[in-house]
Amino acid sequence: MTSASSVEKSATNGIRTALGVGGVLSVILGILILAWPGKTAMVVTAIIAIYAIAAGLVYAGLGIFAASKGGWSRLGHIVLGVLFIAAGVIAFANLGATTVWLAAFLGILVGIMWIIEGVVALSTLGLAVSKTWSVIFAIISILAGITLLFSPLWGALVLWWLLGISAVVLGLIQIVRAFTFGKK
Fold first, then answer.
1. What is the residue extent of each domain of the chain?
2. Which residues contact 89 (CB under 8 A, 6 or more apart)?
């Protein structure tokens, strides 16, 4: 076996392994979201809280130990660090409430984005090849956005389920790709 074919085989095996592992992790995440949507959302919230505390420690450390920075910069980093740490601790202390708040926030955010996306689609109607499809897209986008604004928790739950279904389907496809990648 030549070294070039050995390198190619090794690269192919590495890609196949990455595809397979990624697919399995995606399927697991999707199943967790679908089987235990609330608990999985709480885990995601806890991960965000951990990130906030870690980021806060980094910012506070920058403010305390960065002697080359000016006084206001150091103070700003320390204050930012304290705020991040406080947010993380509060999130952990009220994990259920924080999860609901994040879901509502994301529902509202996606609703606003869909409304804006629909308005932008209408504003570019003159450039559209198919004006009919652009108008249909804009109307659906605006109506979906308004629906999310009036029921952000319900909308966030539907989006969460769609994420779970997508993760399972795409993960399974990724696993199939892992088995078929590099075969001729």
1. 13-180
2. 49, 53
CA geometry: angle 93, 89, 62, nearest 5 deg: 175
**Where residue 12 falls among pLDDT bands split at 50, 70, 90?**
confident
pTM of the full structure: 0.75
Residue 71 CA, chain-centre distance (Å), reads 36
